[in-house]
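User:
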Amino acid sequence: MAKFLLSLHVLASVLFIGPVAVAVSMFPRRAKAALAGGPDQASEAGVLRVLHRITQVYALLGVAVPVLGIGLAQVMDVLSQSWLIASMILTAVAALALLLFVLPGQQAAVDALALAPEDEQRTKAVNGLRMLPMTAGVFNLLWAVVVVLMIVRPGSSTGV
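Assistant: Predicted structure:
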């Protein structure tokens, strides 16, 4: 059962968290280009909407990762180990960063596309984009640390 859950957990991580990480990373640069105007504004706006949708949908699907992880940890009887507790806390922080900063920032940028370039709200949205690259970086860094914790597993009985 543990091998089956581990396989599902790793597959869910790759298939659901990977697209979110990529979309979150690509969004700020594309948002800047789409909101700046210019000849490619329409195509950039389309890309921006797709990246935001990918972030939303795969974030929901990504809930499977910690759910499967907790099930796996129960089967492996490692729920009380510090590396796992730390990774669960970091996963929760990553989820909060996504919900509180990344998704609202993306939504504001997408909403600003409907406004005229000289509109004050659009200007505020463009100025608000300064935080998106940082929050994207923090989100991805948190996931990278969780992956390292999952691989290294301090105190692991495997001897690796």
